[in-house]
C-alpha cells in the first residue's frame, strides 16, 4: 500500500488542467498527476504513489548514498 | 529500473552485513523496530534478518495501513455499499480485510455491492462524474502518503461542485502511532519489547519530512533513521542505528536523502491542512484508541464527508479471539507465535489484517520466511 516507485518524467503539461505528466514505468507509459509538486521537468525522477508524484528524487543524493556503500566495501576489504 | 536496481546489490548487502556484525557489540543486544510495512516486506523478501548477527533483531511495527484498519471501519464501508447503495471506491488492498459477520469488501461485492477498485483518487472522481445519478464514496485509508491525494480529490470535487462525491476518511498519522507504542496503558496487557531505535518511514517522510521524528529522538531518547524501501537502504539504516546506540546518541538521521528533506513536501502539507483537522480519537487495530492520531474532514468541506452525509456512527468490533495481530503490531509477538498462523489463517483466507497485504508481518512471513521455522 505504501509502496511507491521512482519513475522518470518524459512529458509535462498534459491533462485537462495541465498538471499531469507522462512517466516511464520500466518501459510502460503512464499518466500521473503533478498537482502536489512544483517545478517538475522532463528528465526528472519523481516518487510516484497512487497516481501522484510525491517528491523529486535528487540524483546527487542518490549518488552520495551509493558512494557511501562502495567506500564501505573498500574499507571492509582493507580491514579483512 | 534506475534508482531501484542499484539499491538491491547482493554483494553490497553482504559487505554491509559484515560491517554490522563488526560494529555490533557481542555483549549487548539490539532491537530495532521498522515502522513501515515496506521495510517489513523488504526484510522478509530479501531475507535480511538472516544477514544480521543474532544479537541484532528486527521487530515489525504497525506501519501497514491495511493492518491497522479496525473491523468497525470496514463494516462502515460495507454498510455504505450494501445498505445505502453507493458506489464504493477503494484501493485494492482493503478488499480482503475480514469484517464482521464473515464479510469482507470482496464478499460484499459478491452479494451485489457496487464496490470498485481504484488505483488513484483521480479514478474515484471520474467515477463520480460518470455516474451523476449515484452516490460515490471513496474509502480513504492510509498514512501521510495517501492523505494528500485524498485532500486534492476533495478540493477538486469542491471546485467542480461534484455533489455526489464523498469520502469515508480513515487517514491516520505515523508519529502518533510511534508514541502509542512507546507509552500506552496496553503495555501492561501486552507487555512490551525494549526497542533501541526505529527505522523511520520512507515515503511518509517524503511528505512530512524528517522533522516530526526529532521529537522522539529528544523526548524518548530513541534514535530514528529514515530509510528507503530497498534492501540496501534497510541494511544501511541498521548500520547507522547500531552506530548511534554504540555511541549513546539518539538523533534523527536520514538515509533516504535522495527523496526526503527535513521539511518534506510543503505543498502537500498545505493541501492536507486546508481539508483536514485532527480527530480527537481514532481506534487502530492492535493499538486501541489513540488520541489525536487520525484526521477528519473540516466543517468547510463537510458535504464531502461520508460520515456526516450518511449520518454514520463508528462502532468498535473486537478482533477474532485467536488473532494475535495486536501483539504482533506492537512487536511483542511474531507471526509464528500465533496458533492459527499458516493453518487457519493464510493469505488466501486471512483471519486477521496482518495476513492481508503483502506488507503485513504475517503475510510477509508466510510468503518468504516460514520455511525457516521448520525443524530439520
Ligand atoms: S496469523 Fe492471522 S490470525 Fe494470527 S496474528 Fe497473523 S493475521 Fe492474526
UniProtKB/TrEMBL annotation, chain B:
Cross-referenced InterPro entries: Hyd_form_HypD, HypD_1, HypD_2_sf
Domain of life: Bacteria
Molecular function, one GO term: 4 iron, 4 sulfur cluster binding
Tagged with keyword DNA-binding: no
Keyword set includes Iron: yes
A biological process from GO: protein maturation
Keywords recorded for this protein, A-Z: Iron, Metal-binding
Gene3D superfamilies, sorted: 6.10.20.100, HypD, alpha/beta domain 2 (3.40.50.11740)
Family: Belongs to the HypD family.
The protein's name in its UniProt record: Hydrogenase maturation factor
Source species taxonomy: Bacteria, Pseudomonadati, Pseudomonadota, Betaproteobacteria, Burkholderiales
